[in-house]
Write a structure and sequence with these properties.
2 domains, two-stranded parallel sheet, globular
């Protein structure tokens, strides 16, 4: 089984998820997304394959989400991905 994790080593949830994967006996491909952000096509594909809506995949807590106006209902999925 091939597993990829887009990881932030400073994030407790990300560290815990990585530990769970490793405890299952899997050594994943680790991509530190803050150092190597996915390109737009990859990001859109990841969101689509997750079954989430784009807005649901955007981190809001602890980010400038509202300050950037991303919380406006008129903000499109393309704008959010960009």
């Amino acid at each position: 089984m091939s597993v990829t994790i887009y990881h932030n080593p400073d994030c407790g949830t990300s560290r815990n998820t990585l530990a769970l994967i490793r405890n299952a006996g899997i050594e994943p491909l680790i991509i530190e997304y803050l150092k190597q952000p996915p390109d737009r096509t990859t990001l859109a594909g990841l969101i689509a394959s997750s079954g989430l809506q784009v807005r649901d995949a955007v981190r809001q807590k602890g980010t400038p989400y509202a300050e950037l106006g991303l919380d406006r209902p008129s903000t499109t999925d393309d704008q959010l991905i960009d």
